[in-house]
Amino acid sequence: STGKKLEMRTLEMERERGPATILLS
Q1: Which domain of life is it from (predicted)?
Q2: Calpha distance 10→16 (Å, rounded)
Q3: Is the Cβ–Cβ distance between 13 and 20 less than 8 Å?
Q4: Spatial distance between the Cα atoms of 7 and 14, rounded to a whole number of angstroms
Q5: DSSP of 1-25, one letter per residue?
Q6: pTM greater than 0.85 (yes/no)
Q7: How far is it, in rounded angstroms, from Cα 25 to Cα 15?
Q8: For residue 1, what are the contacts with CB-CB under 8 A and spacing of at least 6?
Q9: What Cα–Cα distance (Å) separates residue 14 from each residue in 1, 3, 4, 7?
Q10: How does 1-25 read in b/e, with b if 16+ C-beta sit within 10 Å?
Q11: Residue 11 pLDDT greater than 70, yes or no
Q12: For residues 21 and 14, is the Cβ–Cβ distance under 8 A?
C-alpha cells in the first residue's frame, strides 16, 4: 500500500526536522 509508505516517510521527515515541526503545526 502506497499510503503506508507515504505515512512512514512523513514521520521520518518530521523526526529529522524535530521541534520546528511542532512549532509550525
Answers
A1: Eukaryota
A2: 10
A3: no
A4: 11
A5: -HHHHHHHHHHHHHHHHTHHHHHH-
A6: no
A7: 14
A8: none
A9: 21, 17, 15, 11
A10: eeeeeeeeeeeeeeeeeeeeeeeee
A11: yes
A12: yes
Q: Cell 505515512, residue?
A: 7
How far is Cα 20 from Cα 23, in angstroms, rounded to an integer? Answer: 5
Q: What is the predicted pLDDT for the residue at 6?
A: 84
**Cell numbers given for 24:** 509550525
Quick one: cell of 10? 512523513
C-alpha cell at 21: 515541526
Residue type, 6: L
